[in-house]
Design a protein that fits this description.
By secondary structure, the chain is an alpha+beta fold. It has five helices and 15 strands. The strands form four sheets. It has a five-stranded antiparallel β-sheet, sandwiched between helices. Strands 1, 2, 4 and 5 form a four-stranded antiparallel β-sheet that branches. A three-stranded antiparallel β-sheet has the order 3-12-11, with no helix packed on it. Helix 1 packs antiparallel against helix 2 (43-57) and helix 3 (124-142) packs antiparallel against helix 4 (150-164). Bound molecules: 2-amino-4-trifluoromethylsulfanyl-butyric acid and cobalt (II) ion.
């Protein structure tokens, strides 16, 4: 029972409602940052937007100070996969693909989400990469149902990516439990056989975050101690949502519509708690 060695935090309905409040702060800030993305805008500018929105909402950043992390967002452009540090010097260019990852805390409860945003017109294969990654996230979310098993999510993500094309599924990194901390048990790989690991239980909250590339799955960490980029220089996409598991279905806490539209497309009922 190695996989269950670390307890998974179970939340009450009230606690999940507070996580929803955090999730909506994250959703609004990511939408604002996505709208601001344009050639000449710096990743530091995007970080400033997130800081302003946290302040306006009276929320606390999840990332700032996390093991010494120096910003409120992660900004990972092109061959950077995740954990890129935003800066005023890093200006976006037409054709770039940027993963914007952001987390917020409301009354002690975390929300964590990421989008991949296109800078102007981008190459067709890069747009397809991002679309495949987003779709695999939603396929993983659709598998996050009470009484299933943790690796059903991993397998749904992998199956979705493999069906979409010849992409690298980034090795080692993955999603995570979330609640009173940003990173909690369990770790959720984006690949694997179904039917393994802990049983999915009402009250769990999970961050599901596929990372895929146009080339190999191998990554390396830069000397800044944070930035993860592909070893082969291929471009990567990254999408993430925080999802609560309820007895009658998932509730995507960081999606403005709670996941209603994408779950419906997959024939999965959104939890009535979301209404
Ligand atoms: N949101 C990222 C994740 O999902 C975490 C960012 S790491 C930090 O794992 F250090 F920047 F906080
Ligand atoms: Co995360």
């Amino acid at each position: 029972m190695r996989a269950t060695a670390e307890r998974i935090e179970l939340k009450s309905p009230e606690q999940i409602a507070t996580m929803r409040a955090a999730g909506l702060v994250v959703a609004a800030a990511l939408a604002a940052m996505r709208d601001a993305v344009a050639p000449g805008v710096s990743t530091g500018d995007l970080d400033a937007i997130a800081r302003d929105m946290l302040k306006a909402a009276g929320a606390t950043p999840s990332f700032l100070g996390y093991h010494g992390y120096p910003a409120v967002i992660c900004a990972s452009v092109n061959d950077k996969v995740v954990h890129g540090i935003p800066s005023a010097a890093e200006k976006l260019m037409e054709g770039d693909l940027i993963s914007i990852d952001f987390g917020a805390i409301v009354d002690g409860w975390h929300g964590d989400s990421a989008i991949s945003a296109q800078v102007g017109e981008i190459a067709a294969d890069v747009a397809e990469l991002s679309a495949a990654c987003e779709a695999s996230m939603w396929d993983g979310i659709a598998a996050a149902r009470a009484n299933g098993r943790l690796s059903d999510i991993s397998n749904a993500v992998e199956t979705s990516v493999r069906r979409a094309g010849r992409y690298g599924i980034v090795a080692g990194y993955g999603g995570h439990g979330i609640g009173t901390q940003m990173h909690m048990a369990p770790h959720i790989l984006n690949y694997g056989r179904p039917g393994k690991g802990p049983r999915l239980t009402p009250g769990m909250a999970l961050a599901i975050e596929p990372m895929i590339t146009l080339g190999s799955r191998a990554t390396e960490e830069l000397d800044d101690g944070w930035t993860v980029r592909t070893v082969d220089g291929s471009w990567a996409a990254h999408w993430e949502h925080t999802v609560a598991i309820l007895d009658d279905g998932p509730w995507v806490l960081t999606a403005e519509d709670g996941g209603r539209a994408e779950l419906a497309r997959r024939g999965v009922q959104l939890s009535a708690t979301a209404a």
